[in-house]
Amino acid sequence: MPIDLSGKTALITGSTGQLGRVMARTLALAGADIVLHYHGNEAKAVQLKSEIEAQGRACVTVQADITNFQAVQHLRDQAISTMGKVDIIVANAVIQYEWTSILEQPIEDYRSQFESCVLQSVHLAKAFAPDMIERRHGRIIGINTECAMQNFPGQSAYTAGKRGMDGIYRVLAKEIGEHGITVNQVAPGWTISEKDRENHSEIQETYSQHVPLKRRGTDQEIANTVLFLASDLASYITGAYIPVSGGNVMPAI
Asked: Which PANTHER family does this UniProt record tie to the protein (predicted)?
């Protein structure tokens, strides 16, 4: 059964990143018009916009700091003034930092992960959910991580931010579900991206030997899961944390 998002508009935060650009292309191929959010990489955003428009889809780029609520409100205003509405939100942006032990990790890194994981989620909900509630339809999809279940050494700031994000999404799913809005999370494993293909680093045996499917997933497989959750095929799924990790992590009942 093909997925058709014609007539829908999707916003992807961090759309110029390794996963973001594949998700944007995938949703566009399914018929969605696209709002490309970026923070600093304007050139990549413009390039991606051209690709999406070549597919016959409407597309707009908007720069914003997703850790700042006024900036997210501006993002909303720009998106709606250009596209009319936003039906699908994919919260993908996250601040990058160097991982180390809790004793060595700078305090600022915990702050950056809280701001880009938890506060981004709150800002997007406050900015976009009221319009979704009025229209009684919407899809909110957060990009989480398998690390939120692993809790391995060195992951502390990232795990803390993503576990906080998980709490926001679970509560939000219960608060706005009655309005026909679904709220879900996709949790990738260590994913093969364009950078891996360029560097020929797709194979990571030490990691893959612990994965039941014995391989790393691809950026397209992550995007496919986002596409499913954005579609009407997932109309009765909300509050879910869905690992796309080849079985590397398995939520328990």
From this structure: OXIDOREDUCTASE, SHORT-CHAIN DEHYDROGENASE/REDUCTASE FAMILY (AFU_ORTHOLOGUE AFUA_5G02870), SHORT-CHAIN DEHYDROGENASE_REDUCTASE FAMILY PROTEIN
Neighbours of 76 (CB within 10 A): 23
- 136 backbone φψ class: left, alpha, beta (φ>0; ψ -120 to 50): left
Q: What is the pLDDT of residue 7?
A: 97
Mean of pLDDT over the chain: 97
Phi, psi of 236 (to 5 degrees): -115, 25
158 is catalytic: yes
SS3 198: helix
Domain ranges of the chain: 9-244
DSSP symbols for 148-161 = HHH--TT-HHHHHH
Q: State the pLDDT confidence band at 253, using cuts at 50, 70 and 90.
A: confident
116 Cβ partners below 8 Å, 6+ apart? 66, 67, 93, 94, 95, 161
- Alpha helices by DSSP H, the chain: 18-29, 42-54, 69-83, 107-113, 120-135, 147-150, 156-176, 194-199, 205-208, 219-230
Find the catalytic residue in 158, 169, 236, 241: 158
Residue range 9-244 forms a domain whose CATH class is alpha beta
Q: What length does the chain have?
A: 253
CA distance 14 to 91: 8
d(CA 233, CA 235) in angstroms, rounded, equals 6
In 3D, which of 170, 176, 123 has the Cα closest to residue 148?
Answer: 170
